[in-house]
């Protein structure tokens, strides 16, 4: 019974083994192909079609790895865009009065948003001394006008 294959790298002299079930990268595949060509029987060389099939497999492997890297990069980009969109949308609430349902007590509370931040991938509003997850906001009201504005207007006219 053969449990694995062991070969010595002709360049480094290091032994390497490939047990069944392990993934083989493109470098290992290319080394295997070169060693196959180098060690073939000169009286019965490997068929050209077999080499072409192996090169096609190598090319497919390389293209799949490149596509996988591109998909991972796209997923990261989409995640970053979603965070930026949350932050941008939430920043419009700064200075607004919001009402939210407290997760612990279930009571509705309200206050004015002073800042926005992203925590664990979710937008969180700073209202007074509390951090309020955007998902718990149930209502947004226009900011209340202060009495200072009307007082200033009446004193400027005199």
Question: How is this structure best described in words?
Answer:
The chain is an alpha+beta fold. It has two domains: 24-38 and 49-91, no CATH class; 93-145, SH3 type barrels, CATH 2.30.30. 42% of the residues lie in helices and 27% in strands. It has three helices and seven strands; from the N terminus they run ββααβββββα. It has helices at residues 26-38, 48-91, 147-156; strands spanning 4-8, 15-19, 97-101, 108-119, 122-127, 130-133, 137-141. A five-stranded antiparallel β-sheet has the order 6-5-4-3-7. β4 and β5 form a beta hairpin. α1 runs antiparallel to α2 (48-91). The model is unreliable at 17-21 (pLDDT under 50).
Described by strand count, sense and barrel closure, the largest sheet is:
5 strands, antiparallel
Number of helices: 3
Q: Which structural class do the helices and strands define?
A: alpha+beta
Shape descriptor reads rod-shaped
What is the helix/strand order? EEHHEEEEEH
- Mean pLDDT across every amino acid position: 77
Order of strands side by side in the largest beta sheet?
A: 6-5-4-3-7
Proportion of β residues? Answer: 25-35%
